[in-house]
From TrEMBL:
InterPro entries: Elp3/MiaA/NifB-like_rSAM, MJ0683-like, rSAM, rSAM_sf
UniProt xrefs under Pfam families: Radical_SAM
NCBIfam families attached to this UniProt entry: rSAM_PA0069
Assigned keywords, A-Z: Iron, Iron-sulfur, Metal-binding
Tagged with keyword Repeat: no
CDD domains assigned to the protein according to its UniProt record, in alphabetical order: Radical_SAM
GO MF terms held by the record: catalytic activity; iron-sulfur cluster binding; metal ion binding
Superkingdom: Bacteria
Keyword Iron-sulfur: yes
Name of the protein described by the UniProt record: PA0069 family radical SAM protein
Domain Elp3/MiaA/NifB-like radical SAM core: 73-301
SMART domains per record: Elp3 (SM00729)
Length: 362
């Protein structure tokens, strides 16, 4: 039986999610009633302006200790909550509910801005008890999303990392990272920076509907190439791999990543926890109706019959025959195109001498 019964809809341009969903922590919910929509149609008004709001927030801390052992990072920081890139599958959508918003359109249109992030970062890494460990920028939401072009909070944080010779890593899918090439090159001289570039497809048609406000595939590969040429190690992440959407592109994408100079290729299998399952299924039936049920069933096959999977050690890799085929292709891609490549360890030894902002003589 189909999970989607709407016969007609108006696609919201430039967004991944096509609706807002109820915040599970709220007793009350908000919905657009048919009589309101009819009124807007009669009056010639738009029921939804589809505008992005930037809301300043003032957290007391910025660096988070990551307790999950299977995500590949120990500490992370996020300059923004919510992400205008609009990737429909994004695991970070659920976190927007903790801020009082929805995981659907709210996640893409209500961006929480931590303007004090550089000041908070500086205070954190100057603590006497702190021993340098790589801090990942964008552990949750992209630090180079569109707001960064104007606000430059990420750039200011990179300046802090450089000033105190502290190691950092970046996860992004935006070529805007090249704006900060000067800082990245300076950090790379002391092995203090690495970049994880997310590239999920070679198809621009797929990217446009699945990641509507991200940089083009061409620009991302150009960024990988330029970063690598300047000695900045890059890991290309094909994350997530979605059966019957981008699963056929693994080898081809890995080959291009290697040719662009990437030092590593990694992947994960899509999982649709919390509200993301509803958001993704709605998007899938509206954007790719011919294969919607097939894709959903194949995702379920990777996670024990459900779209949601929170099991540590299994949730990223999946299980079952389809997951095995995907993981085997990922392994083959690494053996074929990255056999003699690896990501270097970041330098954690310099920071102690620079904690006061300058090199100690004795």
């Amino acid at each position: 039986m189909s999970r989607f019964n709407s016969e007609s809809y108006s696609k919201i341009k430039g967004r991944g999610a096509q609706k807002n969903v109820h915040n599970r922590f709220f007793e009350l919910s908000h919905e657009q009633r048919d009589d309101f929509l009819n009124y807007c149609a009669i009056e010639g008004e738009q029921p939804d302006q589809n505008k992005t709001e930037y809301l300043k927030v003032f957290p007391k801390t910025i660096v988070n200790k990551v307790k999950s052992p299977d995500v590949g990072m120990a500490y992370s920081m996020n300059m923004y909550q919510g992400c205008e890139h609009g990737c429909v599958y994004c695991y970070a959508r659920n976190s927007h509910e903790f801020w009082g918003y929805g995981a659907g359109l709210d996640f893409e249109r209500k961006i929480l801005v931590k303007a004090d992030a550089p000041k908070l970062l500086e205070a954190f890494i100057k603590r006497k008890s702190w021993q340098a460990h790589p801090i990942v920028m964008s552990g949750n939401t992209d630090c180079y999303q569109p707001a960064e072009k104007k606000l430059e909070i990420t750039r200011a944080c990179l300046e802090i990392f450089l000033k105190y010779k502290h190691p950092a890593s970046i996860i992004t899918k935006n070529a805007l990272i090249l704006r900060d090439l000067d800082l990245l090159k300076a950090l790379a001289k002391d092995h203090l920076i690495s970049v994880n570039m997310s590239i999920t497809s070679l198809s621009e048609d797929t990217r446009r509907i699945m990641e509507p406000r991200t940089a083009s595939i061409k620009k991302r590969f150009e960024a990988v190439n330029l970063l690598s040429e300047h000695g900045i190690p890059v890991n290309v992440m094909m994350a997530p791999i979605i059966p019957s959407i981008n699963s056929h592109e693994i080898l081809a994408l890995a080959k291009l990543a290697s040719e662009a100079g990437a030092s590593k290729f990694s992947h994960s299998i899509v999982r649709l926890n919390g509200a993301i399952g509803q958001i993704f299924a709605d998007w899938l039936h509206k954007s790719l109706p011919d294969r919607a049920e097939k894709v959903l069933h194949q995702i379920e096959d990777c996670h024990g019959g459900t779209l949601s999977d929170s099991r540590l050690g299994t949730r990223m890799r999946g299980e079952g025959q389809i997951a095995k085929q995907i993981n085997d292709l990922g392994k083959l891609a690494r053996l074929k195109y990255f056999k003699h490549k690896s990501m270097p360890c970041l330098n954690v030894d310099l920071h102690e001498s620079y904690k006061d902002g300058q090199l100690r003589l004795f």
